[in-house]
Design a protein that fits this description.
By secondary structure, this protein is α/β, with parallel strands linked by helices. It is built from 3 helices and 9 strands. The chain has one domain: 3-Layer(aba) Sandwich (Cytidine Deaminase, domain 2). It is globular and about 35 Å long. It binds zinc ion.
């Protein structure tokens, strides 16, 4: 699942996927939603909704099996998993200390959809070994 070019930390997401991601997160409120994004390079051209296995309302966890299955399904259509997204129903669009400590995929873009204080904001990061690096998120038509 290596996809992110760290020399050029930009993640391009298709507008329809961006909107679908926000809508899914909105529909899951007040709970955290989560899922994966796939694409050809470091971009998101398809959204994969994944069940949040966490019983804690402000955490998320995806089973290893569902991640592997999604990765296989993405490969079938010529794509690779490129990003992970989840929502923050009531905290800012920045990784929580729990997020920072529990991210086993440093090569993926880490997107957070926040509804903090009623505003929708999407943050995009790379989290590598406790280090949070902002990634420029670009919404594209195609
Ligand atoms: Zn989080």
């Amino acid at each position: 699942m290596k996809n992110l070019d760290l020399r050029n930390p930009v993640f391009k997401i298709k507008k329809a996927v961006y909107e679908e991601m926000i809508l899914h997160c909105q529909e899951t409120l007040p709970y955290e939603a989560c899922g994966l994004l796939s694409g050809i390079q470091s971009n998101g051209t398809k959204l994969w909704k994944i069940k949040n296995e966490s019983l804690n309302s402000n955490r998320f966890s995806m089973s290893k099996e569902s991640i592997e299955l999604t990765s296989k399904n993405a490969n079938k259509i010529g794509e690779k998993i490129s990003g992970i997204f989840h929502s923050h129903p009531s905290s800012p669009a920045y990784p929580s200390s729990h997020d920072i400590g529990n991210t086993p995929y440093p090569d993926l873009a880490y997107l957070i959809v926040s509804f903090y204080k009623g505003n929708v904001e999407v943050g995009c990061f790379q989290i590598n070994d406790g280090l949070v690096i902002p990634i420029k998120l670009i919404v594209v038509d195609e």
